[in-house]
Amino acid sequence: MKNLVKILTLCLIVSFLAGCTGTQPVEEPAVVEDTGEEAAPADEAAPAEEAAPASDLTEAEQWAQANGFGPYQAEEEDWDAILAAAIEEGEVVVYSNSSKIEKLIEPWSELYPDIELAGGDTDDISVKMQAEQESENVFGDIWFQSHGHDLYGEFMPNQWVWSYVPPGVEFHWEVNADRPFAIQRRSVDVIGYNQEVHPDGCPLTNWWELTEPELKGKLYMEDPLADSSQTAKITLIIQYADEFAAAYEDLYGRDWTTDEAYDDSLENAGYLYLKKLAHNEPGIQPGGDEVDEAFATLGMDPNEEPGYGWTGMSSYEDTLDGEIAMAPCMDLEPRSGILKAAYLAVANNAPHPNAAKLFIRFALTQEGFDPWGKIGTYAPVVGVEPAEGMPALDSWKLFPSDDMFAYENLSIVRDFWAISFLSP
Question: Quick one: which of 40, 108, 185, 375 could link to 117 by a disulfide (CB 3.0–4.6 Å)?
């Protein structure tokens, strides 16, 4: 029955994937070492472009120029005038994929009682905003989520969104013409273990151990086929294939091409890793809470390996609260985890552009960050403090998310994972 389910699922996936387009060939990138050191602060925003004749601008560029977004934003803002105009607009509609957005309603209302914060926790933001842009019927003002592969790969080139960085905001990470969007937070994904069962620390030292027969079915993760943000995470394994090749040799004392699962269709060690991991039948879960429950529930049998979870570092706060037993494997090779970003962008033709500017400025303050300010999240803005007990960023090695690499390789990596997982 299990094989029949896999075969039927494979048929559905293949049918779905047949419609995917835009796949680019995978190129092996130079390895970029992410030390976590603060970059020299960049200018808060690119200088506003000189006004061009309206006939030389697209309709979207004319809107951005008229409202001061993207390359047309002002070096200084008259916030009193913006507030007055925002009060006239009456609301700001924010599309966020985090339920914590609800925690901003009260402090926002105290600051701006005449401007409603609407929108809330929203599913499928990319799909929703694209439909609004294509229909020219725009309701949402703000993009507030990760999915940087969509942001940089589709929305920015199509001028469906514009950047806005409030003058005077200073970031730890560079903001420039190629990477213009404000980052509200950076969060970390890790491989977690059950610290009740393993009180002496994580037994793993290397990502490749998760592909070994002894841990078959013992890695719990969300489905890379169900959500493009999950697919984007596993593209990092392809991007950093050289590091996975070195980690293989460190663990086994031989080249990755000597592995019994190797064949000459595998372009690099990243594909070998994904193939072996998929064949090791990871426990696919519908969400992050279910991932943690699968391996980090309190009171699990200490004589039986509960397994590991590809999870958010933020889950460690639940451990500190006595709810679960998840702890991060801090010393894995080649790196300890993944550093992701959540972006702020303004929809083209946003109906409340002044309120949108106020919201972005607010979201980049301490008060705007606090609902996400748990262990596992870093604040990109200078002066905004992370949660107490958060490890210093330079204390561990992380794979930094690369949105354009993910966008260019998403389809081919998803296809590879689907075939490997469903046809071991």
Answer: 108
